[in-house]
Amino acid sequence: MNVVIVSLAAFFLNIPLGLWRRKYKKFSFMWFFLIHASIPLIVPLRLWLNTPNFFIPLFIALVVAGQFIGSKLFINKTL
Quick check: is 79 in a domain? Predict the structure, then answer.
């Protein structure tokens, strides 16, 4: 169950960050910041829930997937 909690957090925290990241020039400071902004939240959560190190590649893949999906979302600003 702990792996599921960290996995969902890794994925869903990065969707809005990816959406925000697409506004900035690639490799700019804010671009790098938004890519790495979820790390201070995910790592302590992973340590607190005592998830095995074996699942770190899964968490990284979910972070990348969340960033990718967030960057591809289309939000219609005219309602």
Answer: no
